[in-house]
Specification:
This protein has four helices and nine strands. It is an alpha+beta fold.
Length: 224
């Protein structure tokens, strides 16, 4: 024979049986885990170090000047040729600071600067184009009279007279050594106009030869 406890479902206040509270389960006691505490401290310290490194890497940058497009040696630098960029500081690099932007406009490139390349103090010069005892002569040349490749400022060339007489061709034709300043396209004729730098004493003779049209320009090896 079995008995079943009957639950008290009658309304109204219930009577608490003395000693019932003592049968309630006490809350679990928190256990301290030193290893977790040490791990938390280590993670916090690592986070602080990473934050300090990121802050240092971000703030140790400098604004410098770089070429927006390729600047060829001898070209006059214009505003659209250069740009301000930020790079991380490195003692091995000595780029021009962005504050030199205005000073650089109008100067002449002393070497070829590739697009994106940093500009340094050696990249440009503000020396006048014409030195003492020098002259510039412009020569209009057809496609057959000039090498089929770009000419840049500073290229060493020779302007050679191309005589029409067969007898004159046998002998070594006269020539003038020059340095390219820049080139331009004559849209009216399609000719390439090459401005060359020559000694003052050679300028008149070279101009007279160029005016005849019987000249050819040769780019010498090692000039570029």
């Amino acid at each position: 024979m079995s008995t079943t406890a009957q639950e008290d479902r009658s309304p109204g206040p219930r009577t608490v049986t003395p000693g019932a509270e003592s049968s309630l389960t006490p809350p679990p006691k928190l256990r301290r885990r030193p290893a977790l505490v040490v791990a938390a401290v280590a993670v916090t310290a690592l986070g602080s170090l990473l934050g300090a490194w990121a802050w240092s890497a971000t703030t140790d940058t400098q604004e410098v000047l770089a070429a927006r497009a390729t600047i060829h040696r001898g070209e006059v630098i214009e505003a659209q040729d250069i740009q301000r960029i930020r790079i991380s500081g490195d003692p091995a690099l000595t780029p021009l600071p962005a504050s030199a932007y205005d000073d650089l406009i109008g100067q002449r490139a002393t070497l070829d600067i590739a697009a994106g390349g940093l500009l340094t103090a050696e990249s440009t010069a503000d020396d006048p184009l014409l030195g003492q005892g020098q002259s510039i002569v412009g020569i209009s040349l057809t496609a057959a009279q000039v090498p089929a490749m770009p000419l840049y400022g500073g290229d060493q060339v020779r302007v050679i007279v191309t005589p029409s007489d067969t007898a004159e061709r046998v002998n070594s034709p006269p020539s003038t050594t020059a340095k390219v300043v820049d080139t331009n396209l004559d849209e009216a004729t399609g000719n390439t106009v090459v401005n060359v730098l020559v000694p003052y004493a050679d300028a008149a003779l070279l101009a007279a030869r160029a005016a005849t049209g019987n000249v050819a320009l040769v780019l010498d090896s090692g000039a570029k």
